[in-house]
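Please complete every field before forwarding. Incomplete forms are returned to the sender.

SECTION A: IDENTIFIERS
Entry label: holo-725
Bound molecule: L2IWW6SD
Molecule representation: SMILES string

SECTION B: INPUTS
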Amino acid sequence: MAATRRLANTVAVITISHPPVNALSSSVRHALVKEFGEASRDPKVEAIVLNGSGRKFSAGADIREFGTSAIKTVSLEDINSTIEASQKPVVAAIEGIALGGGLELALACHYRVADIQAKVGLPEVLIGILPAAGGTQRLPRLIGVPAALDVIVRGRHIPASEALKLGIVDEVVQGNALDAAIQLARKVIGYPLNKKRLSTVRISSDSNLEDFLDTAVEKAKKQFRGAKAPLACIEAVRASVHLSYHQGLEKERQLFFSLWATGQPQAQQYAFFSEREAGKWTHSSGARWDTEEAKPIRTAAVIGLGTMGRGIVISLSKAKIPVIAIEQDAQQLEVGKKAVNSLLEREAEKLKQQGSVPSSNLGSVHFTLDFGELQDVDLVIEAVYENMELKKEIFRKLSSVCKPDAFLCTNTSGLNVDEIASVTHRPNQVIGTHFFSPANIMRLLEVVRGQQTSLTAIATAMNLGKKLGKVAVLVGNCPLFVGNRMLGPYLEQASYLLEEGYYPEEVDQAMEEFGFAMGPFRMMDLAGLDVGWRSRTEKGLTGAKVPQGTPARQRLGSRYSPLADILCESGRFGQKTGRGWYQYEKPGGRTGKPDPWVKDFLQKYRKTHQIKQQPSNPEQIVERCAFALANEGFRILEDGIASCPEDIDVIYNNGYGWPKYRGGPMYYASSVGLPKVLDTLEKYYKANPDVPSMKPAFLLKKLAALGGPPIKEWRTQVGKPVNKL
Ligand SMILES: CC/C=C\C/C=C/C(=O)SCCNC(=O)CCNC(=O)[C@H](O)C(C)(C)COP(=O)(O)OP(=O)(O)OC[C@H]1O[C@@H](n2cnc3c(N)ncnc32)[C@H](O)[C@@H]1OP(=O)(O)O
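SECTION C: PREDICTED COMPLEX
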């Protein structure tokens, strides 16, 4: 049964029952109509309470129904209108979650009681739509336009205590929200309900409100670059100010359909489900997320307190895992300790504001220089800088100090996990955990499986990722893994574009208008140009190891751009030195301005090398950079380094600033059309046979020959996996 009804004296309790999250599917909506109708007609019933089974009110509309005929049967807003118009008081008992349509349903009730652990919100914007069951009209009428706009446009999950302050709920209880709701329902029998019907409330407008809404539009355009849903949300809320409730509803409905027509909701909903699928890893042996048991991680250690290590310590502490933090000398330990403690203070402050007690919600952090203290920890994460010899030295030590069943993780961004594991006595317990900077904020975790990594180690690392609130994606072991490997051809194209006549700010602007959080040159300046330079020097691509007589723009017979090397040779490492592809106000400065030095340097460089200049075409910038990414993604699938295109997209959406409303590079390729992607790459490669990264991948050709099947069918075409996963 999708909803059940029982009688508690004169109060009917209607319980939504659709595990795991009580999504308001067509069958639930039908059941609600039936149960609510019967309760309303039953003369023994004087009040009605609405709750959800499994201590969850509801996660809202069933997202899988969007775009299907099921969504057209029984509209949620019709149910909401019926509830609001009820002559008997209706109380929502909110436990766990009331999100999206779930909160819209609760807003139609006359009263709302929430359990202290509950979270409420209207997160539709995060899946590319707007609250379209009256939410954009009722919430501003309840809590005012500014507060409602913040809730709707940011889509955040609001803790019950804050919801009470905002006025979204009437009561928050420590104990049983259902009992409290029944009590309240009994108490209000016979009270007038008119003021409790939000659709009847009028919002008074003034010029300040108009200015506020106009500013919100400008802010949203900058903040959400290219995403349509936040702007539609603001338009809908604006309608609540100017229009009657019913006209506002009509506007909400129109905005919903116009958003749907942009294709952004489909991409964001694909991204939503892909994230959930990433947790359901499978292994070529047949083992899966639901057959392998993760070991509990009660204590952990982090080696190295640089930027990455600090973020990882905070992540573990926020997941209530006590951490031992190690540095190599007293001075570095002191610096790291200060930085970690200041971040922890900020976290504690946030917890206090949410009404939580920091000491019981943050794991303790103990700082030491002594590896001997690691003998009892369940898991260690090494986070020193990218140097194979240093990492091996640390893993040798860990192997002899840590208890035999402790897991040893390396936070490498691309080094060989097998080589690191080879110096230990327990390569089966060694696994890559590639965090993204800042590790306490970024959601992505690449879990890198080595040849000998055990299934238990995989299950444990994936589970730890979830516990840290991250999206963990299992990938195979190859140089640079998935995300950074794809970055290679992308950055290569960006550099070639500079050689051919563009400037860093033009390439960045095109990619940022496409929706990237940051264009390639801003990204390199932020990360530090010296990182790639060091790696290229080690590989003999630049510096003293390059054989005499090698042409400046060629390595091993392929095209090579030395631009970044030349910048580094001039001491331009990016933000940290105050100069890179841009100039900054000071070393460590954040605001980059186009640099006349770079312009002059590029002009001279092009002249020296007599490079043919391309006419300016921002579309070409996007095509070359985005298709280079996707092409490498196809190769990664062929190699068995990622198990499906969805995983690659999850990595790009959560770790590399790819715009979620474009789904990810593989989804984007699919939506542009694989034959077109293939054709563009083929033309480019024919004209530039010295750029092997743009040679169309075999899998791309195979899928394009099939006419570009939907992305969910690609998996079957990948062929026999190379068993890297
Ligand atoms: C025409 C009417 C138009 C508009 C009106 C209303 C619109 C809406 O309500 S849109 C939906 C708004 N709600 C959300 O965006 C919430 C989305 N869900 C979540 O944020 C999370 O799932 C959660 C906080 C509810 C639970 O998180 P967690 O405990 O970590 O579990 P999972 O995320 O793994 O989810 C478990 C399971 O449930 C599926 N699921 C979650 N929400 C929905 C949903 N709204 N519709 C359909 N399915 C949902 C999720 O995919 C997982 O299932 P699978 O493992 O099979 O994928």
